Amino acid sequence: MTGASLNIKAARSAVWQILGGAWQTLVRFIASIFLARLLHPSDFGIFGMAIIFQEFLLHIGSFGVGAGIIAKKQVTKKDLDTCFWMIFVVRLFLFIFAYLCAPLLSSFFGEPRLVPVIRTVSLCFLIEVVGIIPKLILIKHLRFSLLNMIQAVSVFLESVLAVILAFFVGLAYWALVLALLISCVSFNLLLLVFSKWFPGFNLGWNSFRYFSRFGFFSFCFSISNYLRQNLDYLLVGRLLGPYELGLYEYAYRIPHLVFDRVSRPVGSVVFAALAKVQDDNRKIFSVYLKSVKFVALVAFPLLFGLAVLADMLVPVLWGDQWLPIVTPLQILCLVSAMHCLFQPIGSIFYCKDRPDIPFKISLVSLFFTGLSVGILGYFYGLNGVAVGMLVPVFPSFLFLYYVFRRVLGVNLFELFRVVFPVLASSFLCALFAFFVKNLLFAFDVNLVLILIVSVLVGSLVYICSLLFLFRSFFLEILDLFALASGIELNNDFFSKLSFVRR
Predict the structure, then answer these.
(1) Sign of the Cα pseudo-torsion (117, 121, 122, 123, in order)
(2) Computed from CA positions of residues 394, 395, 400, 402, in that sequence, does the dihedral angle turn out positive or negative?
(3) Alpha helix locations (H) across 196-279?
(4) Of 153, 157, 284, 476, which is most buried, counting CB atoms within 10 Å of its CB?
């Protein structure tokens, strides 16, 4: 694949990931409006407790082999078959382990209703085995259009089923559990069918050694990174109970949707693209900066706007029972924005055959997360936990700066120069939305109308700021979309705006 064709394919894949993430975010967001009124916060708390355990075991079950498949330049059928059966054995063990340990976890949280929920959710360990390798094949070949179509169908099915089961059947937290299970079945079966790959028994010792060696640090990183990302859930669930966990889970879920459906999907494209240019440090860093710029363009205005409008958005969309999440949600918006900047970093070091570095970075972050979340959460409750999730970003960045200088010979501070146009425009977007919100509120305008006007004004300010204050950045983004879509754009119109400085 030539450099030009790789750029085009990667750009199109990134656009597909953004569109797919936007669709999933929209569907889940709309479903949350209904579910927040149909279910009690404790229902989300019980479901969240089961998901914490499931995700922890899923990180173990991946065993790091997925990163090895993408990072390896030439993957054979023997590699894929060996990888599949390695995953199958581990997942079978994890299913049995989860089934037997459900009562222990239930005792840990002090919630007896967790036992059947954990055992039901653990079925996903076995179901997902059939889709792991097909998904990795699609990612490696940058077939993100097909992958996003499959994900779109599954997310829609899960969200609709959850609302139907909660409203018409009254299943409470079981509506979330059963919808997740059915969605898992449909997603993995579709992956298996459309990837046109089926497992065989063509196993190889060399393949086993490669994935075992490469997967060790990836596995360690997955565990420490999971603990870092879920330490707040564990502490809230253990110390404050299912009601507080349900509140915090909802506060965390909304901004994390932006990260999970925008930054993480683009990170998958970056990993697959970097694997093809892994010998050029400057090119690797350039791809990383472009990906962050692309992610920030979408994520920053959403997160900044959400933080500013949260005090009205929460009661309008989810009801007054969720008002305690406003402040944690605003803080967690900033946390998600910072995470969007650093999410693709692990891909860089995997492609440089240094899987130990993401593990070391996650250990540093885990230490500061445990310290800050534990202390601040103990004294200040949910707000303290949210602030505690923000604190580790700063020492982690200093460690990242040192690693980038040492391994790649590049200056990580260049990242802030690249995203400054988006950061400044997002700040102006949030500032104008804030003023409009307070102005209309002073005149006792309907809350729904205030939200609509504030969002429209903020969006207009964001676009105008990019166009008039950062024209070169705006034109670069247009060129990127043109490259991805194959449409030839004529930028003469923007060039004629003489008052727009380049």
Answers:
(1) positive
(2) positive
(3) 205-240, 242-258, 264-274
(4) 284
Strand, coil or helix: 344:
coil
DSSP string for 304-321: HHHHHHHHHHHHHHT-GG
Mean of the per-residue pLDDT values of the chain: 81
Go through the chain and tell me how many residues it has. Answer: 502
pLDDT per residue over 355-386, tens digit each? 678 778 888 888 888 888 888 888 888 888 88
Q: Please spell the DSSP secondary structure of 432-494, one letter per residue.
A: HHHHHHHHHHHTT--HHHHHHHHHHHHHHHHHHHHHHH-HHHHHHHHHHHHHHHTPPP-THHH
Tell me the C-alpha distance between 84 and 165, whole Å. Answer: 34
Q: The tokens of 404 are what?
A: 């980038």
DSSP string covering 127-179, please?
HTHHHHHHHHHHHHTT-HHHHHHHHHHHHHHHHHHHHHIIIII--THHHHHHH
Cβ atoms of residues 118 and 180 within 8 Å: no
> Is the separation of the CB atoms in 273 and 287 below 8 Å?
yes
Tokens 């593990």, residue located: 359
- Separation in Å, CA 414 to CA 85, 92, 410: 43, 45, 9
Report the distance separating Cα 283 and Cα 210, nearest Å: 26
- pTM of the entire predicted model: 0.69
Residue 278 CB neighbours (<10 A): 16
